[in-house]
Amino acid sequence: MDEIRFKITGMHCAGCAANIEKAVGAQRGVASAVVNLATAQAKVVYDPSLIKVVDIERAISDRGYKASAAGGDNKRADMKPLLSVFIPALALTLPVFTVSMFMHGAFGKYTGMILWLLATPVQFYSGFRFYKGAFLDIKNMSPGMDTLVALGTSAAYFYSIYLVFAGAHHFYFETSTVLITVILLGRIFEEAAKQRASGAIRKLMELAPQKAIVIRGGREAEALTSSIAKGEIVVARPGDRIAVDGIITEGEGSIDESIITGEHLPADRKAGDRVIAGTVNTQGVIKFRADKVGEETVIAAIVRLVEEAQASKAPVQRFADKIASVFVPVVLLVSAGAFSVWFFAAGAELSFAVTAAVSV
């Protein structure tokens, strides 16, 4: 069995994670698939003789998400796409909400038309991602949060259009616009939380320098850390971070190893002593022979442990996943029940029954 990690983009709820786990886990040759929403990563254990990595990626993309081999890529996600739809949504929702709640007759008989005009970009530009997600949910027979948002906001929006043509004086455009805006705000908070979750790994990876001084052909030359081979002699001057793990062959130095040991006082190191990648040479010039490079270094091992810890699921996450698998169908049933009880059993007006269903 081989193990691979994927970076997943497009997830925004526990239902998304459950859908991916179900889709990948159903593939022939996949032993297990664990998706962590907070770190946006999937860990898949599979038999390479039965299934290829590209087939696993296709199973994920068919569900409407994008997968790429994690490969230590922990760059900060771009918040611009979310902000580009949230800011106009907020700008248009504020006047819609204000007029609907406090200034019903502000524009006389044109109030409904003006609210309709303001709400439309929010519904179909800012809210397009929910329609797209709902389409994929329905296509895969796995309704998720996007389905709820698309149904709820569409009901309020299109019923309000009916009220405009019916000559009514009260509309529900503020319901759809506020829902979309608030949920987009939640997505922004969510993305910020994901960034914090992966921040520890990102900081760890930044400890090892990108470049180092290596002796090649009898001369000192600057080289990428990733190109350093075992047995090569690396030079560390005062203030330099140690690029790879190794053993000092020449010189004496004072090494700040606090990132590994927690000890804030630098430790004296001489020929024969070991140095660790990510630590800092505070004094003296040393030369050391690289004996652990790339994924073999202590820092790489720590990063691996943190990634594994983040990829694992706490009991409360597993409990949330179980709820997520039935959450949306239950909400849809309760919403339909609320409408039926108020409209058919209690004899309430259609507008009240629709509001109750949308609220659920």
Describe the fold and architecture:
The protein has 360 residues and is an alpha+beta fold. It is 52% helix and 19% strand. It has eleven helices and 13 strands. It has helices at residues 14-25, 53-61, 80-102, 111-126, 128-139, 145-165, 173-207, 258-261, 298-311, 315-345, 350-359; strands at residues 2-9, 30-36, 41-46, 66-69, 211-216, 219-224, 233-236, 245-250, 253-256, 267-269, 274-275, 280-283, 286-292. The strands form three sheets. It has a six-stranded antiparallel β-sheet, with no helix packed on it. It has a four-stranded antiparallel β-sheet with strand order 2-3-1-4, covered by helices on one side.
Helix content: 40-55%
* Count of beta strands: 13
Percent in strands: 15-25%
Q: What can be said about the biggest beta sheet?
A: 6 strands, antiparallel
Q: State the end-to-end distance.
A: 45 Å
Helices and strands, in N-to-C order?
EHEEHEHHHHHEEEEEHEEEEHHH
Which properties best describe this structure?
alpha+beta; 4-stranded antiparallel sheet; 6-stranded antiparallel sheet; elongated; 11 helices; 360 residues
Topology:
Blueprint: E1 2-9, H1 14-25, E2 30-36, E3 41-46, H2 53-61, E4 66-69, H3 80-102, H4 111-126, H5 128-139, H6 145-165, H7 173-207, E5 211-216, E6 219-224, E7 233-236, E8 245-250, E9 253-256, H8 258-261, E10 267-269, E11 274-275, E12 280-283, E13 286-292, H9 298-311, H10 315-345, H11 350-359
Antiparallel strand pairs: 1-3, 1-4, 2-3, 5-6, 5-7, 7-13, 8-11, 8-13, 9-10, 9-12
Helix pairs in contact: 1-10, 3-4, 3-7, 4-6, 4-7, 5-6, 6-7, 6-11, 7-9, 10-11
